[in-house]
Design a protein that fits this description.
This protein has 244 residues and is α+β, with helices and mostly antiparallel strands. Among the domains are: 62 residues, Double Stranded RNA Binding Domain (2-Layer Sandwich); 36 residues, no CATH class. Strand 5 and strand 6 form a beta hairpin. The longest helix has 36 residues. It is elongated, with a radius of gyration of 34 Å. About 22% of the residues have low confidence.
């Protein structure tokens, strides 16, 4: 009789003290085993959802850009250091020019502790500040111009086909990203890349096309082009060939 009571107690203890573990898991005591199993599955599910959310964000970013291919050029990287207790802390500043090669260009700068992160910040800033510049025949500027920023002074001139990009350093990166194939430039006053690029953009933002001038004056493009001594036929042909 006593043996039967002991066996019944052991059976009850086993039934209440242990529970079947999930598939592929270990058998653990009572509710604790079940709680851990559910918690682990929940955390795994959260991690899976997190990865899915990140992939969705990448997809939305690509859709917002619309698959447009941009030309990105790194112009300058500056390393700075700060002396603190225990050593030095280094930081990097990047200057990037971005363009589509079809008349749109922008520049931006970013700062970070690592070079790749600084370049990423500068690129994102440049994409937000892109401006459109009218081009003649899609290869050169419509007219000469001058730009000024700080100690930097630049002059830009349109050039015939085959001239190429006669520019140095930061200015060359701007015109290559813009899509200009023939231009003559000169920079005077400073070699600071930040001031040179800002002065170049000051000159580019002043560029206008015959089409925009004709619209502003309420005239036809042929009327403006014919005032230089060209015949009416030549003016009409040149007006038809002008492209923004």
């Amino acid at each position: 009789m006593a043996d039967e009571v002991i066996q019944e107690g052991e059976a009850a203890g086993n039934a209440g003290g242990f529970a079947a573990a999930p598939e592929g898991g270990e058998q653990r005591e009572g509710g604790r085993g079940r709680g851990r199993g559910r918690g682990g599955n929940d955390r795994g599910g959260d991690r899976g959802r997190g990865r899915g959310d990140r992939n969705d964000r990448r997809g939305r970013g690509n859709d917002e850009e619309g698959g447009e291919e941009l030309i990105e050029k790194l112009v300058h990287i500056n390393r700075v250091s700060k002396t603190v207790k225990g050593g030095k802390r280094f930081g990097f500043a990047a200057l990037v020019v971005v363009g589509d090669g079809k008349g749109r260009v922008g520049f931006g700068h970013g700062k970070a502790r690592e070079v790749p992160e600084a370049i990423t910040k500068a690129t994102a800033s440049a994409k937000k500040k892109m401006v459109r510049v009218p081009l003649k025949d899609g290869r050169t500027l419509h007219h000469d111009g001058k730009g000024h920023f700080g100690a930097g002074k630049v002059s830009v001139r349109s050039a015939p086909a085959g001239t190429g990009i006669i520019a140095g350093g930061p200015m060359r990166a701007v015109f290559e990203s813009l899509g200009v194939h023939d231009v003559v430039t000169k920079s005077v006053g400073t070699s600071n890349p930040y001031n040179m690029i800002r002065a170049t953009f000051d000159a580019l933002t002043d560029q206008t096309s015959p089409k925009s001038v004709a619209q502003r004056r309420g005239k036809k493009v042929a009327d403006l082009l014919g005032r230089g001594g060209a015949s009416a036929v030549e003016a009409e042909a040149e007006a038809a060939a002008i492209a923004e």
